[in-house]
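Reproducibility note. Readers wishing to regenerate the assembly model reported in the main text can use the exact inputs given here. Chain order matters: entities are listed in the order in which they were concatenated for prediction.
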Amino acid sequence: MEVITWSRLQFAMTAAYHWLFVPLTLGLALVMAIMETLYVVKKDDSWKKTAQFWMKVFAINFAVGIATGIILEFEFGTNWSNYSWFVGDMFGAPLAIEGILAFFMEATFFAVMFFGWEKVSKRFHLASTWLTGIGAAISAYWILVANGWMQNPVGTTFNPDTVRSEMASAQAFWEVVTNPVAVSKFFHSVTSGWVVGGVFVAGVSSWYLLKGRETVFAKKSLLIGGLVGIIGSFAVMLSGDSSGVHAAEFQPMKLAAAEGLRDGGRRAAFTIVPGVRIPGMLSILATHSLDGYVPGINDILNGYTDNDGNEIPSVAEKMERGRMALDALAAYRENRETDPEAAAAARAILDENVQYMGYGHLEKPEDVIPPVGIVFWSFRLMIGIGMLLLLVLLLTVWFTWKEKLKGKKWLLWTMLCCIPLAYLCGQFGWIVAEVGRQPWTIQGLLPVNVAISSLSAAAVKTTFFIFLGVFALFLIIEIRIMLGAIRKGPQISED
Amino acid sequence: MTYEILQNYWWCLVSLLGGLLVALMFVQGANLHLGNKKLDNVQKRMVLNATGRKWELTFTTLVTFGGAFFASFPLFYSTSFGGAYWVWMILLVTFVFQAVSYEFQHKKGNLLGVKGFRIALMVNGFLAPFLVGTAVGTFFTGSDFTVDKAAIADPSSPVISTWGSGWHGLEALAQPHAVLLGLCLVGLTTLLGALYVLQYVENGGVRKRMHETIHRFSIPFVILFVAWLAMLVLRNGYAVDPDGTVTVQQYKYLDNLLQMPGVLAMLVVGVGLIIWGLAQGAQIESHRGFWPAAGGTVLVVMAVFFLAGLNNTAYYPSNTDLQSSLTIRNSSSSYFTLTVMSWVSLLIPFVVAYIAYAWRAMDRKKITLDEIEGPGNKY
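Running the prediction on these inputs yields the following structure tokens for the assembly.
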């Protein structure tokens, strides 16, 4: 395999692994902050012990999340050198701001939260717990601003002198920060973290109830965790709806792949599974209008007219214009110091075609089609599992609230089994988002084959297997330690 | 504000973050003491818990330092990280192990045992300052790379920055001057770690060992650093003409020191503070010295960065193609990005303030034997 393939595999593995730990951090942070608030407000020590138990679990998970986050940051430079220069002007700022505003908040207050019970006041401790979670959420916002910009690169202009995409103006940063794709992604990702955290707490609590251990603690935890999961589920649905609309607007190929839609049109049907379709539903979901036009893969390849009446050129035409832009860029740089007239002429051609420059790097029009099967099924599994999680959470919380869990071991077992499903749901979501936008690192601007570093395949292959080994080791250790902590339990005397 | 002022401002901020990173690497330095055979298991655990409440700050500063470099000087990020691949990857792996070693070390089922994770912390304790120091050392010795921005228009070979050596960064280990800086950093962080533990761990046995470390390593460290500094002022440097042309200039760094008296003062005051801190720590009855030494470290590292990049100097020189060398001017982000980030940087004092508040609140009660043997959360 080539260096590009190993680099992609390495980044995908790291990102997927990182996302095993981040959602639990986001969700559990909220759960334990609510529990500690109840302790402070109600002056009830059992809430303190409940919060402390989940904090122990949080700490086990938190370390690996931090460890894997830094790998992603480094890999932008180590494996995607061209990317780092070409969009560093746009992409670096959110990353730096994330560090300044969020990471320090998380790191500082996590230490107070975990070690400070006997060292700081009750209120300062509570504030630290909330600030740890808020820091994690702010961190998510900035990294998703960066990711959202990759999906919908707003506020940028290409500078042929520096050969990169640059911020168009100081105000353009506001466009980047409020990019609708980033905002949707933030709510979708953070609230999906609430679902994972909620399901995790409810699932573990169900295990205690099945074992007849720590029942008071378990019911309290199940209610709080379950409610967080339910609220998260509804919020995920809302933000998922806007994500669909944004995909239709900014990344129609991703939507077409997610739907397996070869030929689009108005009143497009939504495919639940192959052969089972709801007429008109896709148009409603994608455009909020029954008559909305949704282009299919072939339409995008061949060109179409969008809902605003704009003529979208075929991919072949975009490639041709992209190559004109690349040739003009080369001519401009060759002549800019020696022949101003030739440079000006080249610049004019470049400016006219620059929006398609990324297409100039593609070999054939079909290169713009992502792996349809993977995206199609990941999308369905994400939605299907998400609905199942909501249903199980609703039932479990309802019967716990009504004290009617007796004789419902099946429900508690189902809740417990939902824990791995919640993780899978998030992974499928990211597969849709990231595999669905292939071949672009930056939508329409920079395909993956141009974003790479000048490395040998053997070097990246070596680091891939090193990380694979390290990740596997850490995962096994993490699960063993976490299971040990859960088996030991909070040991609250009231049982 | 002009573009040049913004570029200089961000070089100063990156330098400040670099200084804070090295100072906070007392965590790495203190962890080297986990291999001290004169410390018993409980005493080692006290050291571990002292650094365990601060390692995330060091880690976060590293991430922010990387992020700030990426955001303000992206050509450095793409050239160095993509080129000196193995240096950054080894550094990364040691930090990844460090991040889990605290939490996992004393937990049942951790597979590697206490010893395994302590070794991981010690490997990070040595390699992190050594590799960071050696990498910064190449700011003065130069590296083997070329930068051709026009390459992106060439579909057959679109990569802008290419590294000449197949060792991808490890060839810096053959540069004595760069390696010397790496060793200086190992010495400095070990001493800072000893000073921190001395100040914040209340245990006679532990403090005795930290005094021993300070006695043993202070003078060799000062000699190493003076040797590195002497080699620096005597070596050729990389000057940048107003039109951006890079040339080799004799005694460039000595000139930089003399032409920037403020930087010279920072260096002198910084070294003085470090020596003062070490002198305080060397006194048997004293438990102080960390703060002057840490403050001095920040000043010295900033001065080193200023020498590398300010006063029309190429901070990341290319030995393969002199004109590919990176300067503050040719490697920075655009005017608008630097402007926006400068506004955001105004929040840094606020961040520093809450870190200081939390640090003070947590360190008011020192780490004692009772705490380590008690029921509360600990590593």
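We highlight two features of this model. Residues 265-361 of chain A form one domain. The first strand of chain A starts at residue 156 and ends at 159.
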